[in-house]
Amino acid sequence: MSHDSRSDKPATQVVQAGRRPEWTAGIVNPPVWRASTILYDSVAHLRDSAGRDTHHRLFYGRRGTPTQWSLADALTELEPGAEGTFLYPSGVAAIAAALLAILSRGDELLLVDSAYDPTRGLATGLLKRFGITTRFYDPMIGAGIADLIGPNTRAIFMESPGSLTFEVQDILAIVAVAKAHGIATLLDNTWATPLLLPAIAFGIDYTILACTKYIVGHSDVMLGSVTAGPDRFAALRDTSFQLGQHVSPDDAWLGSRGLRTMAIRLKQHGESALKIAHWLNGRPEVATVLHPALPDCPGHDVFVRDFRGPAGLFSFVLNGGDEAARAALIDGLAHFGIGYSWGGYESLAIPVDPHRHRSVTRRDQAGPMIRLQIGLEDADDLIADLDRGLARFAAARG
Ligand SMILES: *Cc1c(COP(=O)(O)O)cnc(C)c1O
Question: Which reaction equation describes what this protein catalyses (predicted)?
Answer without folding.
Answer: an S-substituted L-cysteine + H2O = a thiol + pyruvate + NH4(+); L,L-cystathionine + H2O = L-homocysteine + pyruvate + NH4(+)
